[in-house]
Design brief:
Chain C: This is Cytochrome c oxidase subunit 3. The complex is a heterotrimer of chains A (264), B (77) and C (299). Helix content of chain A is 36%, strand content 23%. Chain A is an alpha+beta fold and 264 residues long. Chain A has two domains: 79 residues, no CATH class; 142 residues, Sandwich (Immunoglobulin-like). In chain A, the strands form three sheets. Chain A has a five-stranded mixed beta sheet with strand order 3-2-1-5-8. Chain C folds into two domains: 35 residues, no CATH class; 191 residues, Four Helix Bundle (Hemerythrin (Met), subunit A), CATH 1.20.120.80. Chain C is globular, with a radius of gyration of 24 Å. Classes of the chains: A alpha+beta (264), B mainly alpha (77), C mainly alpha (299).
Chain lengths: 264, 77, 299
């Protein structure tokens, strides 16, 4: 029993294998990518980190050398050099090339996030409320009223079951098909909100009177956790988002069953 | 197994940006202009209705329908 | 060698004074001569004055009273009016003092005149930015109208003025007035005092005609400031322009009176110059609301 507990504790400390795509204890990096966009964000992070380390090492070395060699005891007579054309050219050109190498992949990624290349197969509307999300699936409507609409509330701490994540679990998940082009339309019904799912690489602001569009292509089935990312009042921290990506077949039957449930 | 058709409003080159407010509004206008021109029963206008239902939050459509009923809809119908 | 000696050596007494202060002041008396003699620099060290603190108190009363009034507090309107009266009174007496210092006491040497010149220019630049914001708001709302107003401009049901009636009639009046003020400037430079007064009377008359037309236009306007974003931007932009026309008119009236009293000379007429600059700013700016708000925005 004790051994088991120790093992459990160790695994939580060092092996942090998350049960699903959510934030983990002691997490440092990004969550695993579920979409090509998130993959791109992670690659960009690595790209920039290369330059960061290069700069860190170089600047530290210069700093330490300067402190060492020009110390009063080592170098009692100060140098009188105030000008050096070569070094001035080098230290101007190099620092302007590095941001260019960072800017090019950064812009490429930024614009690819905005781009809607292919026609999406499904449109899902996420409507922010104080303090829950409403999801509308209206592709299958034949009138203005009937619509597959449901609210997604956080599960309160007291109602959580074993293994569920605190402040992240909701009563109704957004069910979407994996390996399909999705269009998310994000808008609020009251104050500004923000629909964000880290492993999808999506953070879309919900602005009153405006509907924002973001496209998602989830590459694997799974459950993805996110939280509202616009600070706006008392219960801001209690508006989680849970996306459940299922196979296209399962999606079809779920939506169909829901529609039948609603119309009857 | 239940079969549903996976089809939604296509990407529209008139509205290439993140902000899709006007995309939804334009489709709503297009539907009602089409109905005004061809009548309620023709299937030609169906696709516009599908489009705006996919793109517009339900609350907006509700509000606009109400405005049209009251004669206070601001759009060019 | 001390600093004072250096300055004295470099700038003999008369050059230090500069031309403007002495030749410009018409009322230099014997007593003045004595006072200026004891001053070894060309700057004006002002006497202690109560107006900065009275103006500040007026501004405090105005802001607090304004907030109280808008939130329906008791006495809000009284405090607001009191604050505004305080500010207006301070403006009156402060400028009266400046006129006494410059015209009657001759403190405004060429070097001192630079201050109000730069001040006027910077003030006008800030005014340009101020009005630019309103045209920005108007263009922002009209170039891509939101869905709340149906995506059309002017919004449905909003009556729009015909740009080719009063607005078009009113547009050339202000530039004509600007031409008249240039005439006044040339008259001052040519030492034709009476003609300058005449020209300023013409300038102010045209300005009053313009304001009158603007008032008529507002009176006949089919919409008001509460009528959607159209009314808000329209009346904010044109109204603030009209307000600036009134300020410029008052400024020119004061200059006209001073010209009549012989305050303005060929060498020293900074007040008039500032009024003329301000007036040109106002008359040029008139073209923007006509083109962008009345004409383009009304189609």
């Amino acid at each position: 029993m004790e051994k088991e507990m120790i093992l459990h504790s160790l695994s939580w400390r060092f092996l942090t294998i998350a049960p699903c795509d959510a934030a983990e204890p002691w997490q440092l990096g990004s969550q695993n990518a579920a979409t090509p966009i998130m993959q791109g964000i992670i690659y960009l992070h690595h790209d920039i980190f290369f330059f960061l380390i290069l700069i860190l090492v170089f600047v530290s070395r210069i700093l330490v050398r300067a402190l060492w060699h020009f110390h009063e005891q080592t170098n009692p007579v100060p140098q009188r050099i105030v000008h050096g054309t070569t070094i001035e050219i080098i230290r101007t050109i190099f620092p302007s090339i590095i941001p260019m190498f960072i800017a090019i992949p950064s812009f490429a990624l930024l614009y690819s996030m905005d781009e809607v290349v292919v026609d999406p197969a499904i449109t899902i509307k996420a409507i922010g409320h104080q303090w829950y999300w409403t999801y509308e699936y209206s592709d299958y409507n034949s009138g203005d009223e009937e619509s597959l609409t449901f609210d997604s509330y956080m599960i309160p701490e007291d109602d959580l079951e074993l293994g569920q994540s605190r402040l992240l679990e909701v009563d109704n998940r957004v069910v979407v098909p994996a390996k399909t082009n999705l269009r998310m339309i994000v808008t609020p019904a009251d104050v500004p909100h923000s629909w964000a799912v880290p492993s999808s690489g999506v953070k879309c602001d919900a602005v009153p009177g405006r509907s924002n569009n973001t496209s998602i292509f989830i590459q694997r089935e799974g459950v993805y956790y996110g939280q509202c990312s616009e600070i706006r009042g008392t219960n801001h921290a209690f508006t989680p988002i849970v996306v459940e990506a299922v196979s296209l077949k399962d999606y079809g039957s779920r939506v169909f069953n829901q529609l039948i449930l609603q119309t009857n | 197994m239940a079969e549903i058709e996976l089809k939604t409003a296509p990407a529209d080159f008139r509205f290439p940006t993140t902000n899709q407010t006007r995309h939804c509004f334009t489709r709503y206008i297009e539907y009602h202009k089409c109905v005004a021109a061809k009548g309620e029963e023709t299937p030609d206008c169906h696709k516009f209705a599908k489009y705006y239902r996919s793109l517009c939050p339900g609350e907006w459509v509700e509000k606009w329908n109400e405005q049209r009923a009251n004669g206070t809809f601001p759009g060019p119908l | 060698m001390s600093l004072a000696c250096q300055i004295e050596g470099k700038f003999p007494f008369f050059t230090t004074l500069g031309g403007g202060g002495l030749k410009g002041g018409l009322h230099t008396t014997g007593a003045k001569w004595f006072m200026i003699e004891s001053q070894r620099h060309s700057y004006h060290l002002v006497d202690p004055s109560p107006w900065p603190i009275s103006g500040s108190l007026g501004a405090l009363a105005t802001t607090v009273g304004g907030v109280m009034y808008m939130h329906s507090f008791q006495g809000g309107a009284t405090l607001l009016s009191l604050g505004l009266i305080f500010i207006l009174y301070t403006m009156l007496v402060w400028w009266r003092d400046v006129l006494r210092e410059s015209t009657l006491e001759g403190h405004h040497t060429k070097a001192v005149q630079l201050g109000p010149r730069y001040g006027s220019i910077l003030f006008i630049v800030s005014e340009v930015m101020f009005l630019f914001a309103f045209f920005w708001a108007s263009s922002h709302s009209s170039l891509a109208p939101t869905v709340e107003i149906g995506g059309i401009w002017p919004p449905k049901g909003i009556g729009v003025l015909d740009p080719w009636e009063i607005p078009f009639l009113n547009t050339p009046i202000l530039p004509s007035s600007g031409a008249a003020v240039t005439w006044a400037h040339h008259a001052i430079l040519a030492k034709k005092e009476k003609r300058a007064v005449l020209a300023l009377v013409a300038t102010v008359s045209l300005a009053l005609v313009s304001t009158g037309f603007q008032g008529m236009e507002y009176y006949q306007a089919p919409s008001n400031i509460s009528d959607s974003i159209y009314g808000s931007t329209f009346f904010l932009a044109t109204g603030f322009h009209g307000f600036h026309v009134i300020i410029g008119t008052l400024f020119l009236i004061i200059c006209g009176i001073r010209q009549y009293l012989g305050h303005l000379t060929k060498e020293h007429h900074v007040g008039f110059e500032a009024a003329a600059w301000y007036w040109h700013f106002v008359d040029v700016v008139r073209l923007f609301p006509f083109v962008s708000i009345y004409w383009w925005g009304g189609i």
